């Protein structure tokens, strides 16, 4: 019959293969099936999967008691609880992971190569009453079937996949890794339907069946494909994923080698919380050798027309095409979003929360889609053994409770075994099992907790620094200071003195540790420091350690009492203002008096020789200069205009220098005096008169400001 053909030609899927196992940190190559980032920073150096299979069947129509199957298998389905509705679904999934390998390229990157065969079967919105009577319709009785908008798809294909994953961020407690998988897809078989307002009304008296609605049907023309030829069906698929790990105790997983280089302990899980997100099965399979037809079902005909026909023949022989046959629709992969959170309670116990959401509409043409699910799974995990017990809430199926374990190369489990064993009715069955060859990362041990791995530690049972290959330093003199830090390793001494006994370098009876002047002999009451001038101020604090002075002057005297101590006073014996460095200031009156004296200095005619009668004047000048010891003066020579200019210039220079030399010889510092001759250039009176010329023949001594 038509309805029989419909149901037997259609397929569906479930959410996730290998339920509970993929969260295991030692699942290796299997991890890429749900998140390609999982193999970066893996607990395995190498993982070779030999064979693994995951099977699933689920529905919301029939629930069986698994215990009945062990009593009388023939009665299992007779006693089953059925819940027909207008939109029941059936689903199945077979996922075979063939020879596959995963290995690390370096500290940050890993790759995986895998082979995989998959079958997805789903039928949606099927009338459960049709299933209720399927195989039991009596042709002698009237019946009516309303399938409305039934849809479904069957796809069988293989995958050759390559995954690359690497660490993206490793910064203290924050760790992020990402991965991508590229898959070559080869289709073996596909068939699909999508109906609209499909009904069947059968009248037993006339044996006529009236059908209504439209139906789209497609499948590969040659049936099951037996080779990997790209002429039939092929495509490209992609998976992408990210995983973030929070590692608050990241420093605990770092050890050192004998050279002090940091080594990360790759054999242990470092996270407290792990968050993953991925999108899998992005892509389509291009069906090159398939046909698709859209059929008008609105007709009445004898039921005998359908005897022995499969769905394709029944449609072509008995119904009208609404348009010419076209190429089959591409098979859309069951694209899904996966999120995962893993809580590391301690080093052995974990709790995992996983969600799977379909990203494609289940009623799209030739489309397989996962059923949304939420699962929480406690897990005990060690390197060679783990056990998990997932509890899942699957869309339209309900709560499922499973159990799985891994022991070295063997893994086996089910996402619903506990529900099936303990429950009265089971609407899904699933099982996974496989065999692999895992090669685990080495766990770095540090028994003495000195931060150096035992393999590199020269004294693995006794803590010691890396500088000494993990062994403790010697302490020959037993003073509590290691020989490497002890400046006197054979003689006990305090830590404050670098392991040496205290000395008295200056021999004044005060130990260096208490002696504020360890290189100078001093008195104990002065903390080992001298006070040479006995003014009560220690030499180290005394600005004038050899001359007694008051404390307020920091041990220096102030002889002239002008508030500047002698060592800062340019004129320590003559009081003067601070702004003039303690020396008296040359006033205008003093300057005038000085020049009055200088103008009376007499020279031999036409010469620079000072006449003896001017000696008293020179003495007066010297007395004035001595009263201003820091003042500097210019000795200027001038002449009248009698004679040549050159002669006068030379004479003025010689007379000025003669006065300067006289003063220097009498004790005036030569750096205080400068001489210059102006000749006849600076007259102070007229050279036309005798008295004027006399005034112009003069010497001046002026303050240099």
Automatic annotation (TrEMBL):
Residues annotated as domain OmpA-like: 590-705
Compartment annotation: Cell outer membrane
Region (Disordered): 446-538
Domain of life: Bacteria
GO biological process, one term: cell adhesion
Record GO terms (molecular function): calcium ion binding
CDD domains: OmpA_C-like (cd07185)
UniProt keyword terms in alphabetical order: Cell outer membrane, Membrane, Signal
Biased composition (Basic and acidic residues): 446-458, 503-530
Gene3D superfamilies, sorted: OmpA-like domain, TSP type-3 repeat
Recorded GO CC terms: cell outer membrane
Main location: membrane
Leader sequence segment: none
Name of the protein: Thrombospondin type 3 repeat-containing protein
